[in-house]
Structures are given as C-alpha cells and as structure tokens.
Amino acid sequence: MKIIVLNCGSSSIKYQLFDLPSKEVLAKGLVDKIGLKGSLIKHSRKDGTEVKLEGEILDHQIGIEYLLGILISEKYGSMKSLDEIQAVGHRVVHAGEKFNGSVYITPEVVAALEECIDLAPLHNPPNLKGIYSITKLLPEIPQVGVFDTAFHQTMPDYVYLYGIPYSLYEKYKIRRYGFHGSSHRYVSQRAAEMFGKKLEELKIITCHLGNGASIAAIKNGKSLDTSMGMTPIEGLMMGTRTGDLDIGAFIQIMNKEEIDIAIANTLVNKHSGMLGVSGVSSDMRDVEHAAAEGNARAKVTLEMYYYRIRKYIGAYAAAMGGVDVIVFTGGVGENDSMTRYLTTKDMEFMGLEFDQAKNEGLRGKEAILTKDDSRIKVMVIPTNEELVIALDTYEIVNSLK
C-alpha cells in the first residue's frame, strides 16, 4: 500500500511516500516558502536521485499539486499514476480532548479540528489546509489524522489541570495537552525492544530535544506527564521559546515594555530561549561554539539548558517511582554528545552509570550509552514520526475494508 504522509506548516510541506507494510520510503521532500519569494521543492528518491525545483507556489494546494506531479513524473517520480496512492496520513498538532488516537478523517472530524484552532492557532490552520487540499485533489482517497496531543491523553486530571479556577477549564479547556506525541510514542516503543522487555513493564523518560523540545514520563506504556503544556511554550528552554516562566514576570514585562498580546506572544515564541539568552543563535552548535570561544552569555545559556533537562529527569523519576530507561531523540538529542553527557552525568545515586566512551562522537544512530551493569539505561534513538503516521494510516485504512 502506497501512503503519502504530509506535515503541513505555515509556509512549508514536508512529505514522504511510504510502501507499507514493508516500511520502505520511496521518496521524500520539502515544499518550502509557500506564498513567499523563492518558493521551491526539494525532492529525493530512494535511489538517491535529488532535484530542487523553483517556482511560484502561492498556497498549500498548489504545493501539493506540484509534489504529486513530481511523484508521478517520468524523470523524478516513484509511481506511474496517482491511482497507486491508497491513503494519505496527516500530522495534526492539536486535537484538544476530542481524540485520544489517530482517526479516519470525515467531515465531522474536520469540524472538530476546526474547533481546536483556538488551542493551536499557528499549527492547526496549515494542518487543515493539507486536509482540505487532498479532499479537493484526491477526493476518493482515504485520509487519516495523527495528532501530536493524542499520546498524552492518558495523563490523569491531577497532572493535566492547572491551578486556575476550574470554570476556565470547563469553558475554554485550558489544561496541559503536551506535544511531540508521535515521537515520544515511537522512541519509547523502540526503547522497550532494545531493552528486551515489554513496554508495559517499563518506566521510561523520553527527551525529544530539537529547536522545540519536550520530555515525557511514560509509565507502563502510557504518558503520565510531559513538559509542554496547553501550548508548546511551557517546559524546557528551547531554541526560541522561553520554556517555564513565572506568569508574574511575564505580566511585568508586558507592563514595563507596554506591549500587547500579539507582541508578547512573539517575544516568548520567537525571540526567547537560547537565542534570547545567548544573543548568538537558536542553534545549539552555534551557541556551543560561542561558549568555547569564551562568550559568557553563551556559556550560561548552555548551563540553563542542561540544568532544566536534568531537573525534569529527576522530577519524572520521582513521579513514576523510578526509571528504567532515559531516551534521547530529536536533532540535539540524537547528535549532540555534550548535551547527553552533561544532562546525565553524576547520576550514580539513581543507578545510572554513564559510559562517555560510548557516547563521544555518536551522531544519529541507535545506541545504549551506559555501562553494561548500569541499572538505568540511557539510549539514543533517532525518532521517526513520519513512520508512526504511515503505520497508523495503514492500520486504520485496512480496518475500513
């Protein structure tokens, strides 16, 4: 079964063409700068053939038309006809409390997702544009929605509720939702396989560290807690997001700077985090380089970053009554050996014996980074959110037959 996975952002579309059940990636690419100058498509095929095509791409539907055209083109394609496509899976960021798993997309599901736009105004609209476009271009093809928030719907109420008047939760559904659910789900399942035990028997802390970052406490296969909240701002300090911030301090900033909600939202989402503190970059590599050259603000930025990860690991170990596995994934988690080392060293008191020799220089590969006799295992597992979406789509579409 050939399945297209779409991840639609505000001005981009990431896509992959899978062949299931073999899990083979036939092609993948990026439609970038939609609606902007310099629009282009970067496309690669499983045989290594790559192409970059520039042109005017005014909206998501045009972008999807172009990528479908490339997928069946004689020179760069991986299919002879669009008739070979049997399903489309969409990444959707926010499903609120409406869905606790992936779903077959119907008009009723679309209406429910439209109701969630207020919860994710930056993410859900472009996700929905992908669904609208496929509905128009390939109306007979089944579509499946896979939600970032769904995996965390197992959190108990005492975890997801905030200390605000309960009426505000009832009226506006203001609560912790969590994100990166497909990633946390994938790497926790893979960690159990590498550990040689059932997922339901383990207590796992998964650290998805990229420009956006979150940590999850996964107890017996279910999400107990996660660092991101109602929005992706809460939790760890990230590339450009503040992470945890005293609300009183935020109110003080708005008052002193005389800024409105829109500017304040941009401040905490786009100009804070590693970029805001260091003044150098939102990219870990740039900040590490600046720190190595003696930049004091870059150095304290890294110290803040490492400390918050360590603090969440400790908190989640306490919340679960222990931990068996700590997993690093995401761009930073998979590739930055210094981050892995400095966030897990000196944890022998927990039963964690880190092996720096296994860690040093490791990039983008599965590995166990602890000594053989370490009670707690530390692993690196490259995430594969697209595969999770493809597999869920395959399962749901097959169930419809």
TrEMBL record:
Molecular function GO terms recorded: acetate kinase activity; ATP binding; magnesium ion binding
Residues engaged in binding substrate: 91
Pfam entry (one): Acetate_kinase
UniProt main location, coarse: cytoplasm
Catalytic activity: acetate + ATP = acetyl phosphate + ADP
GO annotation (BP), single: acetate metabolic process
Catalytic residues in the record: 148 (proton donor/acceptor)
CDD domains (alphabetical): ASKHA_NBD_AcK_PK (cd24010)
Keywords assigned: ATP-binding, Cytoplasm, Kinase, Magnesium, Metal-binding, Nucleotide-binding, Transferase
Cofactors required: Mg(2+); Mn(2+)
Record's subcellular location: Cytoplasm
Keyword Cytoplasm: yes
Function per UniProt: Catalyzes the formation of acetyl phosphate from acetate and ATP. Can also catalyze the reverse reaction.
PANTHER family according to UniProt: ACETATE KINASE, ACETATE KINASE-RELATED
Protein's recorded name: Acetate kinase
Organism expressing this protein natively: Lentimicrobium saccharophilum
UniProt lineage: Bacteria, Pseudomonadati, Bacteroidota, Bacteroidia, Bacteroidales
